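stage 2 :: seqdesign
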């Protein structure tokens, strides 16, 4: 049953969520955000197994219902994002039996700029369908795994957990980022609970490896199978590189957003190219967190297995980031889609800590409230700053798609030549072609093909059917050059007419 107080907590989560992220509805697809409009040409091609099969499948109903209405896609993403956070709340409560822990964990995770901005607000819709959607069954699976151990090992919970995990893995290989949680939890549990019971140890190791084995099939069709070195080889040959990479990621995750800008004042070189200070800070932070986790371990005996699992698994997730995306995460100091999964154990650890402190006494309660407010304000500030910084790209694509909405009947019924701004990108051209195109037209993306008026003349296109748009990088704006371009084409027609006399 849900109490009135719990309903209030959920209401606060939902209210803050919309306060932070409601602007997502007005965003546009940017770059590869249009990607899955190209690949979905029917059930046969979409159902062909691949590491991103769910992203392909989900675009079948999305396109059927939403067509070219970008805001409906964004609304769907926003509501799915909210559903993830609501499910996260109930899963954490299910695991810990503590509403405050669930509240703080969900608050930290759902409002995090580091975890969410790049994933949901960058216009890269492919990040959402590839990475965020499998997270829903993953957190359900983890909650059921914990339930299995604390229910007297009722087999149905293990079956449900493994089934939910397999579903997540089948939805996309990005789900394997969370694999450390499922492998490590049974091992820590049996080590802590059954120190000398060989049969129990073997049983729980088999359970642990069942999650690993269920991932092998999807791994074989993912970037894991295309790396120059195996994880073991990298561990042997590049241990320092792995440790430094993990340290940097850890510092970005646990320090307040924007800390790297402050650090720049103390170091002459750009952090993008001179990352040693960040690595050193990360090493110090890891040491401090080891002490912090040790204190939690002593203070909260009922949550010891969970706390150790979350902390150790965090480094496993960061190691996967290092193995697959070292070149990306080593230069990431703000929000990144690669920080979405590792932010879950961080948020959970913080949630456990803040719930414990909140109950201690009035002074600590005030400290907790103050720290949460600072966290919220800092994350809101950086989210707003980045939203303003990226606004020009969304506005540029919004302007050009509004043009197509206004003129789609004429464009579809007349031979046209439309020169599109570079902001749409190649996948954006496919989107325009899918929803606004016809056989007697041509869409060309600037920077990919020159605007050749003589060639257009030879194709017999009427000047009034030519549309030209240009994106000015310096002014960050799309300009309609149709009138000028039509006059140039008319001049070409006149020149060719005179030369034929």
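stage 2 :: out
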């Amino acid at each position: 049953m849900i109490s009135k107080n719990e309903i209030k907590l959920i209401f606060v989560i939902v209210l803050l969520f919309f306060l932070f992220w409601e602007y997502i509805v007005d965003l546009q697809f940017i770059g590869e955000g249009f990607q899955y409009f190209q690949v979905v040409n029917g059930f046969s091609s979409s159902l062909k197994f691949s590491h991103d099969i769910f992203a392909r499948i989900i675009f079948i109903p999305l396109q059927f219902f939403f067509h070219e209405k970008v805001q409906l896609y964004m609304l769907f993403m926003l509501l799915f994002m909210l559903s993830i956070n609501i499910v996260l709340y109930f899963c954490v409560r299910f695991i810990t039996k503590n509403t405050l822990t669930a509240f703080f964990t969900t608050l930290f995770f759902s409002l995090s700029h580091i975890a969410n901005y790049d994933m949901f607000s960058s216009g890269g819709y492919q990040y959402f369908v590839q990475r965020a959607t499998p997270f829903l069954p993953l957190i359900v699976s983890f909650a059921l795994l914990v339930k299995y151990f604390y229910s007297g090992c009722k087999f149905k919970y293990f079956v449900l957990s493994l089934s939910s995990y397999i579903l997540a893995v089948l939805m996309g290989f990005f789900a394997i980022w969370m694999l450390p949680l499922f492998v490590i939890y049974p091992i820590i549990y049996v080590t802590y609970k059954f120190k000398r019971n060989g049969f129990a140890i073997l049983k729980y190791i088999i359970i642990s490896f069942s999650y690993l084995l269920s991932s092998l099939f999807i791994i074989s069709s993912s970037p894991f199978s295309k790396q120059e070195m195996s994880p073991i080889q990298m561990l042997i040959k590049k241990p320092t590189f792995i440790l430094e990479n993990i340290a940097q990621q850890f510092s970005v995750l646990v320090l307040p957003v924007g800390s790297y800008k402050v650090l720049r004042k103390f170091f002459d070189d750009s952090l993008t190219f001179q990352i040693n200070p960040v690595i050193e800070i990360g090493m110090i932070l890891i040491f401090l967190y080891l002490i912090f986790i040790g204190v939690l371990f002593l203070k909260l005996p009922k949550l010891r297995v969970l706390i150790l699992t979350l902390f150790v698994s965090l480094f496993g997730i960061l190691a996967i980031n290092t193995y697959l995306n070292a070149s990306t995460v080593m230069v990431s100091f703000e929000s990144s889609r690669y920080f979405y999964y590792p932010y879950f154990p961080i948020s959970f650890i913080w949630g456990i800590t803040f719930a414990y402190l909140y109950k201690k006494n009035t002074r600590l309660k005030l400290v907790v409230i103050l720290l949460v407010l600072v966290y919220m304000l800092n994350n809101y500030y950086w989210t707003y700053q980045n939203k303003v910084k990226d606004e020009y790209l969304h506005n540029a694509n919004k302007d050009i798609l509004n043009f197509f909405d206004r003129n789609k009947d004429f464009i579809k019924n007349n031979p046209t030549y439309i020169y599109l701004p570079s902001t749409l990108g190649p996948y954006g051209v496919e989107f325009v072609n899918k929803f606004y195109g016809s056989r007697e037209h041509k869409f060309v993306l600037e920077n990919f093909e020159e605007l050749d008026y003589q060639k257009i003349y030879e194709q017999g296109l009427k000047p009034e059917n030519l549309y030209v748009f240009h994106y000015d990088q310096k002014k960050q704006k799309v300009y309609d050059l149709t009138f000028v371009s039509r006059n140039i084409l008319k001049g070409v027609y006149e020149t060719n007419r005179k030369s034929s006399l």
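stage 3 :: structure notes
- The chain has 21 helices and four strands.
- Strands lie at 416-420, 441-445, 466-472, 477-480.
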